[in-house]
# Entry
Amino acid sequence: MKTKLLPNVPLLLALGFGFGATAGQGQAQGVGDVLTYHNDNARTGQNLNETVLNPVNVNLATFGKVFTQPVDGYVYAQPLYLGAVAVAGKGVHNVVFVATEHDSVYAFDADDNLGTNALPLWQTSFLDPAAGITTVPSADVGSGDIVPEIGITSTPVIDPASGTLYVIAKTKENGVYRQRLHALDLTTGQDRTNVTLQASVKGTGDGNDGLGHVPFNPLRQMNRPGLLLLNGVVYAAFASHGDNGPYHGWVLGYAAANLALVQVFNTTPNGGLGGIWMSGAGPAADAAGGIYFETGNGTFSTNPPPLNLGDSFVRLQPSGTNLSVADYYTPYNQSNLNASDADLGSGGALVLPDTVGSATHPHLLVGCGKQGTVYLVDRDQMGHYSSTSDSQIVQSLPGAVGGTWSMPAFFNGQVYYQGANDVLKAFQVSGGKLVPTPVTRSSTPFGFPGATPSISANGTAGAIAWVLETDLYGSRGQAVLHAYNATNLTQELYNSNQAGSRDNPGPATKFTVPTVTHGHVYVGTANTLAVYGLASFVQMPTITPNGGVFTNRVTVTLAVSIPGATIHYTLDGTPPTVASPLYATPLILTANTALRAKAFKTGSVESGEVDATFYNHATLGAGVGLHADYYSNQLRTFNGTPTLSRTDPTVDFNWGTGSP
# Structure
């Protein structure tokens, strides 16, 4: 494990453990801090202390991407935010923390990337290739779900009182696969301590040792759900990589003070599968200390004990070293869900506030899975299982949303869902039930996997619903940040495609969630942390003519209408910067040229890039098109025999799902 620090920075180690609030380096949670997945342990996704961003100023003219920070791998984890951190040797900063699949954790200044803030405040890596410690190649798990490497997938959790960030990293160490829970010092990035994940339960299920025990398999188990910090215990939940077994759903609880394993739970000890995916959503918790999650397809049986809980809502109630099922609910059609891989556990569970419950059912839980049925469950009497109907629960709404690979958000009495191939919808909770017809909906459907909304507001005023469109099976490639008026979803305030390339966050990653706080929106992508906020923006220049074929020579003009703005350009296809040639007079082109241009103005955010390609007719060949080989390998290794080889005059099409 390596941490990049300033020279001679003291390490705040807590040997002998006990690095809690008494250690003296902690701080109180601040207003607007985002310390865990979807903002809180109920997983509501709401920040009710956003005093900067509102539906008036979030628009193309005044809002956009204000800076980026490069990272070394895909960002699946939600960025976390903690204000006023006394970073060792670097003063006090508002900090955004980013974890990557390359097994790195970064601490960046959350407000700008200027001067010394252009570099990370610190960066910790859990890799040491010279010692044989690397990430896990995707091919090793036989799944292209996470590519090209597997490192940190789940959202970490922060304890400000002890000044600790908890994170799980997956590594391959000289051929041995390991997962470790690390406790990082927030001020230095130093690894105070860590523990290798190991556990077993009694059972005869898949992967058992032949002696009546089912061990935790560090290669097969995937920690996708965000971590949960509850009553001094860090909880981690697990499923698998692409249904490749043997695997189970696991919940492991580690004492935050010393990382001792204190609680273990397996969803299918005498069966198999039952993974806890929830598309990255962390297990939820309520004020009574109950832990809630949804499981995927797998064994379901209630007799003889212990329970096997595939395709179920589950409540665990921690008690000392015991982590047992306090209650559960399983849909009546669980056998069909299991047989068709229509996981209930593709979606995350949301603990609703008591203010929307009824006298009969004051404590509610809402969740949805691949079938798009929204379930409203009484947390005190979850209903167990009936083979004939779901009438024992508070409510079920079949087909209410598109299949869900995400989780909802809650704000001001409404539940927000964006299912796959569906629009963003808000359902009112009235009389302790969901009104079946959405009170408002957007007009832009997202492809797979839909999105997990986040809500920002100042109390109940100025509410905005934020969603990231990734559309992984489409042709988009870039993630798209959308902002809607949360009280009227027909009003789209902004999306990052409106300004051309100016606001592109970067290549999309699956199940990403934006973090919205203190006037900024933080978005993780395949190679970047993109930060959005209010600023003065320079519009893109125009190119006339905008590319094409010419004979002998062509005169090209560039223009921008913003007073005081300058245009810089390149002619070799490289990205333009302020160091590139300054445009002053029309360009005379005689050769094939890839022209790229940007507009700049002091005190403003640079424009997006425009480009145009010019071809001299004399250089054009007589070919019939471009030859290409097409593969169906999800791991993107392009090995073996192509699925298809052909020549096309134009390569500009979408194969669609399930094709090369």
Notes: Residues 334-339 form the longest helix (6 residues). The chain has a mean pLDDT of 93. The two ends are 39 Å apart (CA to CA). DSSP finds two helices and 53 strands in the chain.
